[in-house]
Every structure is written in structure tokens, then in C-alpha cells.
Write a structure and sequence with these properties.
It is a single chain. By secondary structure, the protein is α+β, with helices and mostly antiparallel strands. It has one domain: Jelly Rolls (Sandwich). The two termini are about 25 Å apart. The mean pLDDT is about 90.
Length: about 230
Amino acid sequence: MENGNTETIFALPEEKTMKMKEFLNHLEKPTDNFICYIQYQNSNLTGHFKELLPDVGEEIPWASQAFDKSPDAVNFWMGDARAITSMHKDPYENIYCVIDGYKDFILIPPTDLPWVRYNTYKKGIFKNVTTNSYEIEMIKAVLQNENNRESIETLPWVSIDPLNPDYQHFPEFKRASIYKVRVNKGDMLYLPSLWFHHVRQSHGCIAVNYWYDMDCDIKWCYYRMLETMCTMKE
């Protein structure tokens, strides 16, 4: 997003703790500028939502057999249709299960990395979000090798919105192989590790996903080679 000085910033969402009843009330009566989404990813289904675990199970048996391991994390997702997950990739084999509603995925294979532009952004976080205002607090990092001087933290992130790609600035994106998938209630999607994905959802969609750690095999080596070559090109 852009701040008042038209500087582009990567802003993390504000995190709030509330009772499930309050969260559901926000979903039932959505308001401007206040978008609720359960997205705590540290295996929240085995922690915060462990009461729901018997209804879905701690793993997908065929996936655990195929990957020869148990999942690293099992995550519960539910939220507002206005909550959109921007294009990114994960180092996990992802089994994504929709329980109610639907999820719309835009997928790009990791072999298309040369056509998916990254930029480096200053990192911030939303604070004091209300229905008519918000603040963005910049995240500071201490540079240990420069006399412990503070600096604004940065991170590389995909620059392109696949819903409205700016081909003037990113003409190479026209060459990307784009797959659009709707995962409906009762469907299960296997999202391979390192695949780029952008996600939207129906309002109140409920989903669970299982993250299996990827193997650092030839696929990982090939992807790292692509990263290096893209950096050399720039």
C-alpha cells in the first residue's frame, strides 16, 4: 500500500485478540475499513482452535504417506470476503481444504520466477484500526554491524497484482503461466511448494490447510539457480 507521501510500504495487518462471538458479529455486520480474518498460521488448529481438531483430523493420511512425514502445521482460516492474500510463495507442500464457501486461487509455477517481479519494500504494521481511521507504524531493525544503528526493516515481495497487472511497468508478466482455480466446499487443493499464489474467498469462508515441510531436493536447487540468474539480470 502507499502512505501519504506516495511511498509504497508492505504493511502487516493489525493483530487483535477477541472472543469468537465478537469475531462472528463483525462478519455478520461488516463495516468500512475494519476487515476481520482469522489467519494466525502457527498451527492454530492444534492450539487456539484445538476443540475443532476432532472434526477434521491432525493430518491427511494419503498426504502424510506421500510426503513421508506428518504436517508441520495445521491452520484454520475464516474471514471477510474483503481480505485478500497477495501473491507469494511458501516453502511447504500445502493441502488446502475448504469446509464452507469457496476460495479463488491464482497460481503461477515457480519456473516462471523470471516473469514475476520482486521489489524491496519498507515494512510497517497497521495500528489502531477503526471504522474510519488507521495508523501505520514502521518496523525498525537494529543493524548490528553498524554500531547498532536503527533502520526501517525491509523485505522483498512480489510487486504485481494479478487481478489488475500493470503491464506498462511489468511487461514480462505477460509471459507468466497463470492458472485460476476455485476450490469449493468439500474440495481439496494440493498446492505444491514454491508455487506463487494469490487468494480471495467468499464471505465467511471456512478452510483448513496442512503444511508439510518441503524437501530441499533438485527442485529447490533449480529455484535457487533461477533466483541467482534473475538477480544477475537486474
